């Protein structure tokens, strides 16, 4: 922790030093959490923007993981030296929204860049997630993703399953997983990353079930969790039962299960659409499909909700910096840039025009996996259950879920007990976080 | 006792200690006072609104069953880590005494792991024992052990204890070797002439004479297990499964930096500060007097 603080201090000093050396150019610092290929995209975009004009200079700074970046930004704000732009992950959205007075709505900034801000240009499902209840867009969606299904075609073949038709419902997934296991095609049938984001938050939206009151927190911060309803209990009991003989294999709280799938240990896998890159790189003979849904849920499949991260702007900064951010975001929203971002990184395009352009270019005919998350998110107009999940302390609530799920999968409690505990502990934590 | 040296200059001594004092003030007292202040506040992560609540955060923390669980986890973890690290180090040090050729090389190799950063040590053990790709995990499964530290709390604890003690063995080894060298050979030889077997000689002569070193290491190892193992736990288990490996220090981090409940987190770190002060006092009061350095 000491080193973290120290590193943050050094980085802050560096930013200070570098900003004093520039005279005419307004510097815009961009704190982000992108690694590997996605980090290169960040650097490339900043470079292109800087070369396209001479008034502003975007300086990207890598700050560690998503939670580390959020913490660094909060600490910097408290020390009155915030960056201009900060990338915040989906679960941190509620935290940022709760901090009115610390942030400046992106809608205001975009209109300062010289162009009028037209919200209808942007993908509705994504924009709704990053907007206030009154519709004001608060942050700029930079990288959005949604969970989809991946499967190993070689394992499917060995198990005698239909290689071209991945399972569509959870019931079909369990049957296929059992067949993979019993036929010996692979030691495990099914694994998944993010039990919280995929099997709880998206499970609720995709099956049109309520996650919590107040439109899952979109309508207001006072939320009561509803995830111990029978449909959730059934789903998690099925997972827990399959875990007993290893048909379902747990990988970890975030993306760790990807290793298990890549190692060819499990045949079916649910994971973010943003995880496609590593699977392509591994050279596996893979297939993709929509996120499975519950066959007896009325109205399923509804729509999935976005994950990933968005860019937030701190309040109380000099006017020129806001103008610069406006110019930068308008630059990012250009169709060719969005289309390229989408095609290179696997994240969703932010604007409708970029989606149409990519579609026209025939990209999806060659890469059908890239269109699945967009279709999932845009297929139906979102209901009050499927606009997203927003809690002031969603990271904490996810932590509680992970702890209870782990106890359940270890056989220490049933799904009903786990979900009841989650609701009780989660509601208490939410009440404390909103100051009651 | 050598006679006391008296410096005639009145100001110079203060000037000489000033840099050290300044560092202590800026890096120790100031943050400590901030933690104390924060522990009595309840505020949002951004510090936009804060309320002074006296000891409410302490009351909340101490009545939280998860905090009590974490005390228990810390106790199990610390005792196990200290026992394994010291036991293994003592065994190796006694064995190293018997090595005649290549003693220097052997000792140097033993000291290496101490130079490995905690997070790296954690990653090494994580890879070795990863249920799907770890080579040692494969061996365990071959032996018929259902190895799954991701879900089995006890196995996860074994894994973090192993990683934490592995890193500390070198340090303990160094002190035990020094302690063993300070034991007069004549005592052991006399016992041998009287017919005492090696095991008997160890228990009746070597081990009691090593007691000051052992006691000193016990304190150092406890402090290590309490405060310096964050990196290992963060890398290997992240406190899970459930809350099976969430130690006090890890909980401070998790509540403060992940859950953003700064008041609770600060209250917990103040409690930890009290524990460190107590441990240090014990060390100075009882241990410093009894350990003989070379």
TrEMBL record, chain A:
CDD domains: PBP2_UgpB
Any Pfam family the entry gives: SBP_bac_8
Compartment(s) where it occurs, according to its Swiss-Prot or TrEMBL record: Periplasm
Keywords attached to this entry: Periplasm, Signal, Transport
Record InterPro entries: Bact_solute-bd_prot1 (IPR050490), SBP (IPR006059)
Domain of life of the organism encoding this protein: Bacteria
Signal peptide span: 1-24
Listed NCBIfam families: PRK10974.1
Subunit structure: The complex is composed of two ATP-binding proteins (UgpC), two transmembrane proteins (UgpA and UgpE) and a solute-binding protein (UgpB).
PANTHER family reported in the protein's UniProt record: ARABINOSE-BINDING PROTEIN-RELATED, SN-GLYCEROL-3-PHOSPHATE-BINDING PERIPLASMIC PROTEIN UGPB
Family membership noted in the UniProt record: Belongs to the bacterial solute-binding protein 1 family.
Role noted for this protein: Part of the ABC transporter complex UgpBAEC involved in sn-glycerol-3-phosphate (G3P) import. Binds G3P.
Protein name: sn-glycerol-3-phosphate-binding periplasmic protein UgpB
Phylogenetic placement of the source organism: Bacteria, Pseudomonadati, Pseudomonadota, Alphaproteobacteria, Hyphomicrobiales
Automatic annotation (TrEMBL), chain B:
Domain ABC transmembrane type-1: 71-283
Annotated TM spans: 12-32, 71-96, 108-128, 156-181, 202-227, 266-287
Top-rank taxon, per record: Bacteria
SUPFAM superfamilies: MetI-like
Family matches, as InterPro entries: MetI-like, MetI-like_sf, UgpAE/MalFG_permease
Principal location: membrane
Cellular compartments annotated: Cell inner membrane; Cell membrane
Keyword Transcription: no
Coiled coil start-end: none
Database matches in NCBIfam families: PRK10561.1 (NF007852)
Similarity comment: family membership: Belongs to the binding-protein-dependent transport system permease family.
Function, as annotated: Part of the ABC transporter complex UgpBAEC involved in sn-glycerol-3-phosphate (G3P) import. Probably responsible for the translocation of the substrate across the membrane.
Subunit structure: The complex is composed of two ATP-binding proteins (UgpC), two transmembrane proteins (UgpA and UgpE) and a solute-binding protein (UgpB).
Protein's name in the database: sn-glycerol-3-phosphate transport system permease protein UgpA
